[in-house]
C-alpha cells in the first residue's frame, strides 16, 4: 500500500488563507486552529503557517482587549500582488535600460580590444545586471500566476477552446450523417472511411 501524500506548505497556506477569505470575518487563534484541522492542516502546525502568512503581509493581526484577532480579505491580497508586480515591472524596466547602456559600452570597448580596467569593470557590471534581469523576470512570472486578470484570460481562453472543440465535433457528426445518407444508410462504410483518415467516430463525443 502506498504512503498517503502529506500536505505541502503551500497547500497549508492556501487552506488557512481560505478560512479568512471565505468567511470574510475576524478569527481568534484557537478557532483558526480548529478550522484548519478540519481542512487537513495539522493542529500543531496552524500557528506556524499563520505566522508565515502574517510575515508575508497576507494575514493581519490586531489586539483587541486581551485577545489577538486575525483577518484577511481577498481584495487586500490581490492589491498586495498588484503593488508587488508593479514594483517588479519597474525594477525590470530599469534593469533593461541599464543593460542596453552597458551593452553599448561593451560594444564600444570591444571595438578597441584593449583589456583595460574600465572594460573589465563594464563587463563585470553587465554580468551582474544580466543576472538581476533574469532573477526579476523569474520573480515577475511567479506573481503573474496570482494575477486575477491573467486568470480571467486563461478562463476565457479555456471557454473559447471548449466551444471551438465542440463546434468541430458537431461538424464531424453532421458530415457523418450526410455521408451515411449518401451510402444508403450504411454507417459502417462511413465509420471505416473516417478511421482510415485517423478519426475514430466510436470514441468521439462533445467536451464538457
UniProtKB/TrEMBL annotation:
UniProt KW keywords: Coiled coil, Nucleus
Listed Pfam families: LZ3wCH, Mnd1
Cellular component, GO annotation: nucleus
Major site of localization recorded for this protein: nucleus
Keyword Nucleus belongs to the record: yes
Biased composition (Basic and acidic residues): 100-118
Region annotation Disordered: where it falls in the sequence: 95-118
Residues of the Mnd1 HTH domain: 16-74
This protein's record includes keyword Nucleus: yes
GO MF terms held by the record: double-stranded DNA binding
Signal peptide positions on this chain: none
Domain Leucine zipper with capping helix: 151-188
GO terms (BP aspect): reciprocal meiotic recombination
Entry's localization field: Nucleus
Function description: Required for proper homologous chromosome pairing and efficient cross-over and intragenic recombination during meiosis.
Family: Belongs to the MND1 family.
Name listed for the protein in its UniProt record: Meiotic nuclear division protein 1 homolog
Amino acid at each position: 500500500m502506498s504512503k498517503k501524500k502529506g500536505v505541502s506548505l503551500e497547500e497549508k497556506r492556501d487552506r488557512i488563507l481560505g478560512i479568512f477569505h471565505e468567511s470574510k470575518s475576524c478569527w481568534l487563534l484557537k478557532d483558526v486552529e480548529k478550522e484548519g484541522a478540519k481542512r487537513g492542516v495539522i493542529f500543531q502546525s496552524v500557528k506556524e503557517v499563520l505566522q508565515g502568512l502574517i510575515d508575508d503581509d497576507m494575514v493581519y493581526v490586531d489586539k483587541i482587549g486581551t485577545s489577538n484577532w486575525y483577518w484577511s480579505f481577498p481584495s487586500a491580497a490581490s492589491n498586495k500582488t498588484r503593488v508587488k508586480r508593479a514594483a517588479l515591472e519597474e525594477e525590470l524596466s530599469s534593469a533593461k535600460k541599464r543593460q542596453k547602456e552597458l551593452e553599448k559600452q561593451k560594444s564600444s570597448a570591444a571595438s578597441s580590444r584593449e583589456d583595460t580596467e574600465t572594460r573589465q569593470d563594464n563587463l563585470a557590471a553587465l554580468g551582474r545586471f544580466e543576472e538581476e534581469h533574469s532573477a526579476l523576470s523569474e520573480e515577475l512570472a511567479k506573481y503573474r500566476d496570482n494575477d486575477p486578470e491573467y486568470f480571467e484570460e486563461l478562463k476565457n481562453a479555456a471557454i473559447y477552446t471548449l466551444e471551438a472543440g465542440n463546434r468541430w465535433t458537431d461538424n464531424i457528426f453532421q458530415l457523418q450523417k450526410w455521408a451515411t445518407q449518401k451510402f444508403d444508410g450504411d454507417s459502417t462504410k462511413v465509420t471505416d472511411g473516417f478511421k482510415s483518415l485517423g478519426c475514430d467516430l466510436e470514441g468521439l463525443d462533445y467536451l464538457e
